[in-house]
Amino acid sequence: MIDNADDLLGVEFLGLFVSVLCQAGWNANLQLDADGVPYESWPPFTLHFVFLLDDTSPAAFAEAAAEGMDVGVAVQDGRLTATLTGEDWPGADPAVANPVLPSPA
Questions:
Q1: Nearest to 4 by CA among 72, 51, 39
Q2: What's the pTM?
Q3: Residue 63: alpha-carbon gap to chain centroid
Q4: Distance CA 83, CA 86 (A)
Q5: What is the end-to-end Cα distance of the chain in Å, rounded?
Q6: How far apart are alpha carbons 66 and 45 in whole angstroms?
Q7: Is there a contact between 60 and 12 (Cβ–Cβ < 8 Å)?
Q8: Which residue from 1, 5, 38, 86 has the highest number of Cβ atoms inside 10 Å of its Cβ?
């Protein structure tokens, strides 16, 4: 959780930062056995990294966040979701990767 995240909108590394956060979520979900085979009985779970904004709309971050390597974004219910896309990252649609989000209060 990053409080007062409005200031991140203008930084040139925002896309890279979002990409690294998404990769961290992916790696946290990657569970392998001793032979390097993924555990199939442990489904991946959604991890959330939250930017708390004071004055900026989440949609304003969409273009900059999507500049990260292999990052796809979607705005739904007033929230910006991001996920990894491409051949190396299954489940490439950010709207599908986070299908049920509570509405902002």
A1: 51
A2: 0.73
A3: 14
A4: 10
A5: 17
A6: 22
A7: no
A8: 5
